[in-house]
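User: Fold this; tokens only.

Assistant: Input:
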Amino acid sequence: MKTVTVSLSPQLVAELDRVREREHRTRSEILREALRRYITVAERDPMIPREDALPEEIEAMRRAEKEYARGECVRLEDLQHELGLRTR
């Protein structure tokens, strides 16, 4: 392995340490996993949002992905029609 030095704000270090303590893992383990996830997303979609998603937004996205995988989705046009909205 190679060592990489990174600067983090005190607030981000505190958040990292809270996760580290809760999960009984090292900072390095968590940062490696976070970087792997980031790279996976970046390879699928080069437009990574600059604003961090809130925990409830992340949970909503996870639920949506599972619903989509189960085929529990509707077309936008169908939803707009059901809600009585005009479509373009």
